Amino acid sequence: MSRIRLGRWLIAVPMALLALATIYPLLFTANVAMKTRRDYILDRFSLTDTLRWENISTAWNSVGMGRYFVNSLFVVTASVFLLLLFGSMAGFALSQLRFRGSSALFLGCLAGLFIPFQVIMVPLARIMADTALIDTYPGLILVYVAQFLPFTVFLMTSYYKGIPPEIVDAARIDGSTVYGVYRRIMLPLGTPALLSVGILNALFCWNDVLMALVMMPSADHRTLMIGVTSLRGQYSDNIPTFASGVLIAAIPVLLVYLFLQRQIADGVAAGSTKG
Hints:
mainly alpha; MetI-like fold; globular; cell membrane; MetI-like_sf; transmembrane; transport; Carbohydrate ABC transporter permease
């Protein structure tokens, strides 16, 4: 029993420290957001004695955070829809349909996971500018789809490989077309994976700064994360207002993690447990 207790403590203590290290930045940001600028300068680590909600109001109204919030919501929704549509189709084809070159095509999708955006940033911006897609919502949506589609295809292919091929064969014998099998069988069976992958992609797109900064130079088309960065500039150091903007941008992500943590964990594990 003593060995079991010791083993549990050896696991619980590092996990508690990890949880504390994860929660502390959020608590520190929320505490700073409730301070005045003077209180922050005097002692940035002390606990605030009053809740100053006007900092959040200032952050929301000073740079048009409401407009940026709507921009991010539209771009993320459209990007996730296209990612799930194309990713589920490709996953179904690569896992259940037998055609020449499917393995090479799947490896090509996997190769896309190892290409960081910084490598293709300059030529991609040139292409988008030449095609008049720079500083447009369709341009940013296409960039998100291209960047995160390999990840989506990989997870959906891994998940669909766990579905017995006899189900697809039986449907084809009954006269169902390939599209019919995809729509009536694979989509319903793949709902757990689609939900998990959709949540992960939504978080990726929502938290992105670099791609949105490159593709959306105009102030009117900025996303929420770019709007947060504009709260602090060369001649502006109102840290409580900046912390309030960070808190506004983090609230949707926190809500997603709070209510959909099981789906997120399933999505992360899908690639290693299926197939």
